[in-house]
Amino acid sequence: MGNINLDIVNATSDEEFENHIEKIIIFKSKKRIRFSLKVFVLKDGEYWVSYIPSLSISGYGKNKDDAHSMAKESLDDYFTNLFDLSMERIDKELSSQNWSKRRINNKEYSNTAHVDEQGVLRNLDLPEDTVIERMLIEQVA
């Protein structure tokens, strides 16, 4: 795919973030993808981490911009490799990460498995005083 144009933005409210449904829409024949994902940004020691739990993708750096840049690069690599697979293999790959295909639009996948009812990351062991910023990452035209 190469250099997906992405935008990482702050959710306008906690409610917007909590109600946001992550999705991936794949147009395999056109080699196009649209998505909207949740990103958690936190400081771990000296480094900033941008973490996309629904795809197990992260990036890190000395500042937030570096962390975002690395996460975007990893996301681009992930989707580039995903497009090399058959649709059957894409289905298996995404379902292995708790993505489910929508019945009405079978090109669209959704995922809510990595965040609990309060919008807190599941299965991530962090110190209680860790400040986590909640953001959204979307493909932009």
What does this structure look like?
This protein is globular. It contains three helices and eight strands, in the order βαββββααβββ. The protein starts with 5 loop residues before the first strand and ends with a strand. It has one domain (6-139). It has helices at residues 14-19, 64-83, 87-95, and strands spanning 6-10, 22-27, 32-44, 47-52, 57-61, 100-101, 108-111, 132-139. Strands 1, 2, 3, 4, 5, 6, 7 and 8 form an eight-stranded antiparallel β-sheet that branches. The protein is α+β, with helices and mostly antiparallel strands and 141 residues long. Strand 2 and strand 3 form a beta hairpin.
The averaged pLDDT comes out at: 81
Largest sheet: 8 strands, antiparallel
Apparent shape: globular
Helix/strand structural class:
alpha+beta
For the record, the count of structural domains works out to: 1
What is the helix/strand order? EHEEEEHHEEE
CA gyration radius, whole angstroms? 15 Å
